[in-house]
Write a structure and sequence with these properties.
Blueprint (H helix, E strand, L loop, with lengths): L10 E10 L8 E11 L4 E5 L6 H9 L6 E6 L2 E2 L4 H10 E4 L3 H4 L6 H11 L6 H11 L18 H13 L5 E5 L7 H18 L2 E6 L2 H7 L2 E6 L2 E7 H6 L4 H8 L32 H5 L1 H4 L3 H6 L12 E2 L8
Parallel strand pairs: 3-8, 3-9, 6-7, 7-8
Antiparallel strand pairs: 1-2, 1-4, 4-5, 9-10, 10-11
Pfam families: ABC_tran (PF00005), oligo_HPY (PF08352)
Family: Belongs to the ABC transporter superfamily.
GO molecular function: ATP binding
Amino acid sequence: MTTAPATAPLLSAADLRVTFPGRRGAPAARAVDGVDLDIGAGEIVALVGESGCGKTSLARALLGLVEPTAGRVSFGGAPLSYGSRAMRAYRKRVQLVLQDPSGSLNPRHTVYDAVAEGLRIHGYDGDERAAVAEALSRAGLRPPERFFLRYPHELSGGQRQRVVIAGALVLQPELIVADEPVASLDASVRGEILALLLRLRDELGLSALVVTHDLGLAWNIADRVAVMYLGRIVETGSVEEVLTAPRHPYTRALLSVLPESADLPVVLAGEPPDPARIPSGCRFHARCQVLASGEAETAGIAARCRGEDLPVLPGAGPAAVACHWASTP
């Protein structure tokens, strides 16, 4: 897979935090609790983790849909401004692709209107019909004119997802954020959509953040992987480094349940903790198989696991892990 060149990142988050107030005096929920993350030009980064780990909140903050409580998001080297004019320009350069094409498309709008909507919102003054046709063609719907007057219910699931992708491409963005882009599709169609995203990267230099719970998907599409747990990235590195030699017990547990894994599945105890009550020490320690098995005690690090916090991992660079056990010589 292609590795992004060592230049300034296209999108960068520095010590990003997103907090939601609790109800009736309850503690605030720290959905994103200190994240550094870089995405280079032409790079695909997979953000992986269980439901509720903060992936979507982080993606929304990177898109400017949620203003961070603390920290900074930069695009093209400039800090993100949250004024309406600046945000309008930013959202033309960074587009969102949602997981459920049926929910993303208005059933009363034709394919043409669905794809042209972004152009109309941003006051496009060029040849709208040509732009829509090009976007549909790039998304794999050819000849594009054959789809102009169709409605979402007349399309297959894969075709609907291609329309959603065309709606993002029509504005010629530099980055797309794809939230579970193939989760609602049949297995036979998933590979086609992943191949499309890779082709768009190769042909257009498009960058992508792919939000997913599926490490198998990350292996097939990503250059780098960031594994998220309870508001923080706990392991990051190239897809080969993280998925062939995982160091964090949480990453190992996620990998163990893949059908192609040779390891016995690791069943994690309990549910992820409440983000309003993040435990002290390593935030994974209450569910950690290394601690539960006694290995951490034998290694003399159990007390650190329970009481010593870990630093925020760097947004790019060599593989890194936030784990006392993995860092023990």
